[in-house]
Amino acid sequence: MQVNDMKMIKVNEKWCLGCHLCEYYCAFANSGVEDMVKALKDMMIQPKLRIEQKDKISFAVSCRHCEDPICVKSCITGALSIIDNVVSIDKKRCIGCYTCVLVCPYGAVMPSQEGAVRKCELCVGNSVSSPACVSACPNKAIELVEV
Amino acid sequence: MNYVIIGNSTAAIAAIEGIRSIDKQGRITLISIENHHTYSRPLISYLLQGKTDFDKMKYRPDSFYEDNSVTVVLGKKAVKVIPDMKAVILEDSSSYEYDRLLIATGSLPFVPDISGLDKVKSMHTFMTLDDALELEKSINDKSNVLVLGAGLIGLKCCEAIKDKVASVTVIDLAKQVLPSILDKTSSDIVAQHIEKQGVKLKLSCSIKQVYENSALLTDDSVVRFDALVMAVGVRPNISLLRAAGVDTNRGVLINQCCATSIEDIYCAGDCAEGYDMTADCKKILALLPNAYMQGFCAGVNMAGEEKIYLSGMPMNALSLMGLHILTAGIYEGEEYVFQDKKGYKRLFYKDDMLKGFILVDDIECAGIYTAMIRNKTLLSSMDFDLIKKKPALCALAQERRTSLLNRKETW
What we know:
The complex is a heterodimer of chains A (147) and B (411). Chain A has 147 residues and is an alpha+beta fold. Chain A folds into 2 domains: 1-62 and 122-147, 2-Layer Sandwich (Alpha-Beta Plaits); 65-119, Alpha-Beta Plaits (2-Layer Sandwich), CATH 3.30.70.20. Chain A has 5 helices and 6 strands, in the order βααββαββααβ. Chain A has helices spanning 21-29, 36-40, 70-74, 99-103, 132-136, and strands spanning 7-11, 50-54, 57-61, 80-83, 86-89, 142-146. In chain A, a hairpin with a 2-residue loop joins strand 2 and strand 3 (57-61). The longest helix of chain A is centred in the first third of the chain and has 9 residues, at 21-29. Chain B has 411 residues and is α/β, with parallel strands linked by helices. Helix content of chain B is 23%, strand content 29%. Chain B is built from 11 helices and 26 strands. In chain B, strand 1 (2-6), helix 1 and strand 2 (27-32) form a beta-alpha-beta unit. The radius of gyration of chain B is 23 Å and the shape is globular.
């Protein structure tokens, strides 16, 4: 597969501690709330990535921003599109049919309580300037790299 | 190059995107019987329900045709394709010549021959935006609506109108709802759910005779209605190409490049019969993602590059009155069934491969299952005991998942 001329999230499974900090920082960055406690405490957080764990293995999974994204091609409303190499979701147009959940080979497009699906948009357009999961990871198990 | 596309829905739009991924210059003319900007057909139920509007249901932005230099001829029906002259004739006798032609005319609602149907004043189908607008005009909070057909179209119609009318009754000849995609257990879940929401359901039942405002059913009961919706099924709209001598079966037969039997004529979407990898034969796969894939593939090939699409399979994502149902593939082979508070899951596997699944509500990461089917991933190469409980990439071999996650390969 060819890759975009862009940055991507790289996962180093050897270094992942399974601490879930990335999930908390992701949820916080996308909450629109300034206070982390208010954003997360006693809330059912809905991060845009997930930690997978099995025995001693753990790693983060977020949208790969595929060059030829099957979710975009399958989207029944046109809510998913590629904007500047980022697979983006227009929440106003998503009606929550979950066709993207059905087709994403990584499980990276997720149902959400809001109705519209949630997925990693590389922190474009939220309160932080670069992916919060990357800066929050204490062990460089998630990195932003040039591709 | 001079491209002509007949149709204005998913496959047609995808073909434009496919053509323009290769050829930025060629002339594209799109002809559609519908007089609307391209819109998402499955959204008509959401429009009726008030959950979307004309603007949000547009499948592509207002500037789409202009951005892609497409000449659009809307509200006109193509009546003839003449392959020898490489021309399409419209109902107003105007003609358009083509170098490459795509037929993406979709399907038409099938209306069965029921005695008395001509007496019904408020009879509807539920397929197009105009159908939805007409139905909306003819119902109010005092209306009783009878829907014939408890498939995808019928049930989405019920969902759209149930809170707007006095009563909705849906009947189906089959013993269960959604007979084409669900098994008995999951259809029972859906049936109970929609009945709880106030929809009256009658199965193993059909209309014997219909009158202006009532129907005599095969169980000899009578249902009064103010509006009747026919949602029995659809038929591929292939008359244009059949008359032109293109090879057809139920749909227009297409090859792996979405080309028909006549040179320079392509076909994609609900009217096409292409390869279903799970059934290993040609089938009509009347579903939106398939229409896009076929349309895009056709577009690329029309523009002169070779692209092959052989990974089509039945798949459905249905959200219905709060339930979420995802299905894919064929239902053959050994099974894994699990049901708990979170939902219902049934997996089908054979020859060391996942072949199909039915998921109700327990749907997270379902795309991993779909990818396993599409890639024919050998179950013996992964931790199947783990993945059958929960789709997860950690069930794949370490090398494979690292390669996938770091975009060295895709699946």
